[in-house]
Structures are given as C-alpha cells and as structure tokens.
Amino acid sequence: MKVCEIFTSIQGESTFAGQLSTFIRFSGCNLRCSYCDTKYAYAGGTELTEQEIMNEVSIVGVNLISITGGEPLLQEGVFHLVEKFLNEGHKVLIETNGSLSIKDVDPRAVIIMDVKTPASNMSEDLDMSNLDFLKPSDEVKFVIVDRKDYEWARDFVREYRLREGSKVLFSPAFGLMEPSELANWMIQDRLDTIFNLQTHKYIFGPDKKGV
Question: What distance in Å separates the CA atoms of residue 131 and residue 169, rounded to the nearest whole number?
Fold first, then answer.
C-alpha cells in the first residue's frame, strides 16, 4: 500500500474531534476538489506492507486510528488492514470521499463519508449506493463554501432522510466561509445537524502537515 504519512495528533474533525489519534494517510485520490487541502497526497508516498504499517502504529500505542488520504479506499489492501486493526481492539475511522463503494468495509469501523457539494466541482461523483450501506455509527460530512452549497446540502439531508440513520455534519470550508455565517443559517432553519470545525487548523495553523 502506498502511504503518504503516518503521524499522531489531535483528531480535528467529526464527532471524534479532540481525541488523540494516529493517522494513516494514504497516497492517491480519484477526485480533485476545488478546496482540497491535501494536494500533497495526490501522488508519491512510500510502499509499505500491512505488517510494516501495523508495526509503526503499534509503537505509538494510541487506540484510535484514522485512515485517510487522498482516498484510502483506492488501496486494495486497506480493507484487510482495517479488519486487522479492529481485531487488535483498535477503534478505526475511515475518512472517504464517497465516490467508491463502502460495502466491503468491516462494519465495526466508523465511516466518515464526504458528500461533495457543488462548490467542490465533484458533487456528481458520489456513489449513491453508499447511502444504503451507512450505519447509525457512521457520519456524513458536507463541506460548505457558500449559501448555494448550504441549501444544496440541507435539501440533500432532507430528501434522503440522513438524520434518520447516520450522524450528519456541516463544516465551513476553512478560509472560504465564516463559521458564524454557516452557524446562523443552521440556527435559522432549525437544522438538526452537527456543526463541525476543522479544529486542527485552528490549533496548528492551516498549512502544517503531520497534524
């Protein structure tokens, strides 16, 4: 598997924000979102075996593992890797862009799936069948850039009744939208979703890697 970086930091997104986590960031992505903040993971990386990855993580000794990218589900070995970590008692989060099927992901893992909004220029790439495989423990995230994005995401949540299943998060795109503006829209609409900041960027700055 091609790994961009492995590091331990504070989880900055999702309902797990604030928890200590070891991140495995895989290289390669099949999307090119307009606001992407990890373009350095598009290519390159180091080829590591499953055992090499597990050895590096075990040295750290952190229970929560965040598997991200790029797009981690592009790696053929990631499904078995997730299963191995779960069998060892780890809590595993998988951050995916929603364009690839999550059907074969071990159900014990927590899927954190992006639904790309129009401003990303990738909103047509969602594998809609993924909505059928989401579990109550999973999370669906919308990154919001502007009012059009917000209304699109709000209507998507209502049309597909996402709040009847998984947790739903609305996140203002860092540096592109004022968090207070998104928060006010959610308050005005009495929107039953979770407001989610990229807290690691506020803690460490927007451009620092390995955090």
Answer: 15
Domain contains 209 = no
Q: Give how many domains the chain has, as a whole number.
A: 1
Domain containing residue 162: CATH number? 3.20.20.70
Tell me how far apart the alpha carbons of residues 111 and 120 are, in angstroms, rounded to a whole number: 20
Is the model's pTM score more than 0.85?
yes
> Mind listing the pLDDT tens digit of every residue in the chain (211 residues)?
999 999 999 999 999 999 999 999 999 999 999 999 899 999 999 999 999 999 999 999 999 999 999 999 999 999 999 999 999 999 999 999 999 999 999 999 999 999 999 999 999 999 999 999 999 999 999 999 999 999 999 999 999 999 888 899 999 999 999 999 999 999 999 998 999 998 888 888 777 777 7
Paired tokens of 165: 């299943």
